[in-house]
Amino acid sequence: MSPRTSPKGVKSYGIGMLGYLFMGKAHSNAYQKMPVFFYPPPAIPRLVSICGRSRSRVQEAAARYGYEKYETDWRRVVADPEVEVLDNGLPNDMHEAPCVEAAERGKPVLCEKPLGRNSKESARMLRAVTKAGVKNMVFYNYRFVPAMQLFRRMVHEGAVGKVRQFRAAYLSDWIVDPDFPLVWRLRKDISGSGALGDIGSHVIDIARFLVGEIDSTSALLKTFIGERNLEAGSPKRGRVTVDDAFISMVKFRSGAIGTIEATRVATGRKNHQRVEVHGSEGSLYFDMERLNELQYYSSADPADRRGFRTILVTEKVHPYAGSYWPPGHVLGWEHAMVNQVYHFFDALANDKKVEPLAATFEDGHRADMVIDAMIKSSSTRRWEPVS
Asked: Domain containing 280: what range?
């Protein structure tokens, strides 16, 4: 791949974006904003081509997001010589083929989560990028919330001592309405799993990011609404073939234990994510609905002054925060995407490693192995190894 050079001497990489809805919008925004906040940027994303099934809607998205052209066939995007980096935000059943073909063409690849519908699928994707030697990343964007980066740093620096317990939950009411239609995320053949892979995979990834590898799990998956209208207002019904919610216990390789759960039918919850780590010397707590804050308890504090303290993660010394606003001017959900895009293009332009701060295809594959073990455990009603 031969990157272009801008007049200022900063490399430019042509982006091919697959998908134009939620993630297409979020990723495109990150590509546009990254060179503004991280200045001078390590590289400049050039929005070359965007792809979607509906010609009229993808044409509109191209104009809205600033892409030079649009396509309705992902193969044309991957084959386009001006597309030097592929970003795959298509439904889960369309993750493997475009990513593998792009890798075989020597193009760096970014992909939405979960990486595969199962670990066998993601293993093939991992082999493709490894064989091709191309940079790769999975959009586990919550790693790049500044407070989460500080969380990891503090755990690894021993701020809580030896980690003993991990707790995480991701709660949403996205499909709590029984009249919500049977979209692709409710079909196993397309999505692979339900709440488990959709939002649960985020906290599985965070568990690995903070505490390390998961050895085994005992899980229960549950579908509460078994049938839905095929389309909004349609009398025809179809069967839901994925979970609405799951709960699990996990054992980490380090000896720590934990609980992980997620649901898309938690009435009143929109995008609630909480993560907690307890160690021998202290605890850390993060709440996505207060994403600029980190709660820290240290047993080293004097006995009469112990208690959780709030760290407002907006200072220049905090991860990524110094590239934005003055202290106390809080960031939003989209800034994690901007930070992640910066990290990837810094790795790409300066030949740095994508891991361990970002999730690579190997991380995506390992998260898929945990998901597979949880699905199996729910069926066998036994503890299942992650292998």
From this structure: 142-385
Q: What's the CATH code of the domain at 76? A: 3.40.50.720
Same domain, 278 and 339: yes
Helix (H) or strand (E) holding 275: strand 272-279
Structure tokens at 327: 């202290």
In percent, how much of the chain has pLDDT > 70? Answer: 98
Q: Among 15, 25, 109, which residue's Cα sits nearest to residue 69?
A: 15
Q: 183 and 65, same structural domain? A: no
Higher pLDDT pick, 172 / 233: 172
Q: Which helix (H) or strand (E) holds 32?
A: helix 22-37
Residues 133 and 146 in one domain: no
11-18 vs 4-5, strand pairing mode: antiparallel
DSSP for 207-220? HHHHT--EEEEEEE
Answer yes or no: do 177 and 204 share one domain.
Answer: yes
Termini Cα distance of the chain = 35
For Cα atoms 187, 365, 44, give the angle at the middle one, nearest 5 degrees: 95
